[in-house]
Amino acid sequence: MMRTIAGNTVDVPYTQDITDLGTGREFEAEVIVFNCDCHTYQEVISLFCHIIPGMTPPKAFELAWQIDHQGSAIVFQGEIKQADNIGKKLATGGLRIEVRY
Fold first, then answer.
1. 63, part of any domain
2. Where in 23-71 does DSSP place strands (E)?
3. Could you give the CA distance from residue 65 to residue 83 in angstroms, rounded to a whole number?
4. Residue 65 belongs to a domain
5. Is the residue at 54 inside a domain?
6. What's this model's pTM, rounded to 2 decimal places?
7. Residue 72's closest CA among 41, 44, 36?
């Protein structure tokens, strides 16, 4: 494509950005934890930090607060195999979870 910039004609390559490949999601699955009123914040934070890759205590606290006050929170988004593994471990720790695909 030819354009005139500051009095000069230059060849500018045509580019097209694709922002949506169909699913609208950049992940395969997500793990949701539901409130059960049977764990302390510290228990939930500890489980999250030990089981969910990259989880930090401040982020775990935010998620625990959301679960306590809003009833649920998405705690992980990623590949199906990893989401299933995280979900199973959190459930083994006594949390009510759902893995959505």
1. yes
2. 29-34
3. 21
4. yes
5. yes
6. 0.75
7. 36
Instruction: Give the CA distances from residue 64 to residues 1, 38, 39, 90, 91, in Å, rounded to whole numbers and listed in that order.
Output: 53, 12, 10, 13, 15
Each residue's pLDDT expressed in tens, for the chain with a length of 101 residues: 555 556 666 555 554 444 444 456 789 999 999 999 899 999 999 999 999 999 999 999 999 999 999 999 999 999 999 999 999 999 999 999 999 99
Q: Is residue 11 part of a domain?
A: no
Distance CA 60, CA 54 (A): 10
Compute the residue count for the chain.
101
CA distances 1 to 4, 7, 15, 37, Å, are 10, 16, 10, 62
